[in-house]
Backbone:
């Protein structure tokens, strides 16, 4: 185990009937909120009204800022920053999934800077402050509700980059598993892929490797996510399955599983960012294409680690570690397909001829993230495994 | 899964060479600290000097308050409160294990009250504030370094009671696994028993029971604690084993494993408190006596849960759940004995004739904790299983 600092102060309020508590929580941090949400599903399913009533009861004034799309974009966030500044809000409340929460975080940080907010995402300027962020979660996948990251896409150049700062860590997040009942099978599947990939990137790409407890946490969470998702596909309103998925999503990417793992790289995320930036496909769908392709590429260099994965998750046995590892990759693809998430570029209608362009885009991000070992040629090799 | 609130803001700084960071962390909370420690081992092993130098470099003044004994007592804490008030300290820094941290927490809370501090422990008065508490951990077991509880013994009446409040949650805890290298085999074993019992109480005594992720976390942590302790018994200075144990101890009792489990009772702790209050034996030694005795008592009412434990932890198989459960209890006793922790009253030199007196004492605590189902007769039955 390597040295680490773990600090995660977000207050989680979890369970059915908890959304009406949001007003009181917001009022601890200010009197006027920017209410950030997406394309309007919360207006139809009653969540908007629950939140608005709760804010009013707590005496919190608020201004709506709807319209955050999946894979949130810079131009929209810039409008949010302008509105937050004009309205002099003192809190940002996100009601949505990872995209909405990330947009809210970017707005909260952007309000505090005089320069181009994109400078924070290229790491050319540090995040030096943010308005307090609170969330009501409606899609569980990114764990953005309990971590310090946010991802944004700059349309010009198709750059999907991120910021990481304790300033944007949510103060309070409310999670009611019943709001997931209406989540489509597709997004339920993509969420599972996202949660699993967050954990497996750390599992495969850490520099410590003597981390039995972290390994076991990842394996435990992954088994729970798979088991819960299988139930959800049959019974979308199974509370226990949705609740276990919702809590696992948080634990899978709130710093817990990677504590002590040393430096962790996320190459599948790096390459996937190019897919969703260029083709605007769901992040999870992109990950189910890239992750197995990356694993196949890593077969020679990370044989033992991949074999351990196959043994623990899919109870695969066999003499040679490489053969066992290959079976593990095949099982993972099989499972992704079984829940309806694509495992090839073709299945997501991405032309094979675009590989060069995608690799160019991903390589640019590898430079921003200081990832060594991912030349354009390597990325092309990985993408070819997804054909 | 049942509704829950999870909030654990303690900053953990983990790893070798981290103790010199304590001064800077303390200085974020005040300029004068009460330095609480135990019977002087930190003076011999150099930790005191590391802490004192770090405080001086950070410009933090400090007053020593040594002498906390294992199973810390009220009279000593009262002296600490008087000293803290007289010296007008604004921070309490604990350097030690669970006893020292608990004493520091009690002092931090006690400074703020005008009435008898014991009223907090009988729950007749609420904790309404506390000085900031920081810790440097030298024994890993209680997880007090990352939770909101503290246990104290009132010598008059042999009452070993607790307080629970967010005010006493440590702000920062520094954990360097190398300080555990010199921990005796006995205390290394008792620590493992304590960590395991914290988790198993929740595993056996929760009211939700549809908690696959929590169950898997407990099983993962328990396997890691057992595996690490077996290594530690052979190689006390194995860094990886000590580090995995140190981190598992925290995760086992910082609220993570019980989130969503609903109401959790800790009957083995309740009864053990009487053993260590009356006979001043190490807490872990008392737990390895009481826990298997309690499990034997629970065999009829919690058969399935005990069988699950046997299957998951000891890979026990068999037709009847009760037979499997019995094998699990036997294995646990065997393992406790193998690391040198007692599994009978006799092994701890506690006379069988005292059972009535012990049960009387434990029953009084069951009333303070509002535990139903633990009459004096029931407690006698459990204790007889430890003969």
Residues:
């Amino acid at each position: 185990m390597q040295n680490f600092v773990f600090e995660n102060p977000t207050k989680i309020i979890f369970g059915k009937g908890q959304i009406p508590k949001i007003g009181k929580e917001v009022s601890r941090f200010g009197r006027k909120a920017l209410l950030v949400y997406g394309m309007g599903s919360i207006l139809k399913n009653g969540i908007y009204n629950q939140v608005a009533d709760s804010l009013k009861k707590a005496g919190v004034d608020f201004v709506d800022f709807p319209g955050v799309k999946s894979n949130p974009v810079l131009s929209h966030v810039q409008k949010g920053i302008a509105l937050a500044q004009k309205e002099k809000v003192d809190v940002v409340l996100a009601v949505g999934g990872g995209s909405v929460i990330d947009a809210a975080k970017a707005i909260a940080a952007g309000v505090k800077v005089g320069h181009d907010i994109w400078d924070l995402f290229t790491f050319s300027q540090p995040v030096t402050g943010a308005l307090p962020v609170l969330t009501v979660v409606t899609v569980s996948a990114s764990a953005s509700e309990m971590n310090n990251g946010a991802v944004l896409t700059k349309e010009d150049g198709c750059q999907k980059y991120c910021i990481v700062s304790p300033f944007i860590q949510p103060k309070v997040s409310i999670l009611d598993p019943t709001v997931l009942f209406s989540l489509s099978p597709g997004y339920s599947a993509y969420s599972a892929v996202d949660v699993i990939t967050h954990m497996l990137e750390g599992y495969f790409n850490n520099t410590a490797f003597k981390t039995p407890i972290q390994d076991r946490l990842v394996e435990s969470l992954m088994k729970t996510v798979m088991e819960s998702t299988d139930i959800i596909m049959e019974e979308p309103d199974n509370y226990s399955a949705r609740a276990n998925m919702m809590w696992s999503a948080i634990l899978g990417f709130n710093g817990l599983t990677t504590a002590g793992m040393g430096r962790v790289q996320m190459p599948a995320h790096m390459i996937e960012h190019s897919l969703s930036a260029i083709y605007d496909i769901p992040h999870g769908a992109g990950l189910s294409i890239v992750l197995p392709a990356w694993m196949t590429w890593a077969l020679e260099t990370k044989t033992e680690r991949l074999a351990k994965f196959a043994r623990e998750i899919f109870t695969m046995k066999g003499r040679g570690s490489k053969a066992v590892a290959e079976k593990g990759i095949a099982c993972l693809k099989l499972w992704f397909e079984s829940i309806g998430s694509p495992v090839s570029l073709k299945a997501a209608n991405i032309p094979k001829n675009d590989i060069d362009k995608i690799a160019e885009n991903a390589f640019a991000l590898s430079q921003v993230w200081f990832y060594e070992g991912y030349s354009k040629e390597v990325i092309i090799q990985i993408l070819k495994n997804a054909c």
User: Anything to note?
Assistant: The two ends of chain B are 37 Å apart (CA to CA). The first strand of chain B starts at residue 4 and ends at 14. Strands of chain B lie at 4-14, 32-36, 61-65, 91-96, 133-137, 149-154, 159-164, 172-175. The domain at 183-384 of chain B is CATH 1.20.1090.10 (Dehydroquinate synthase-like, alpha domain).
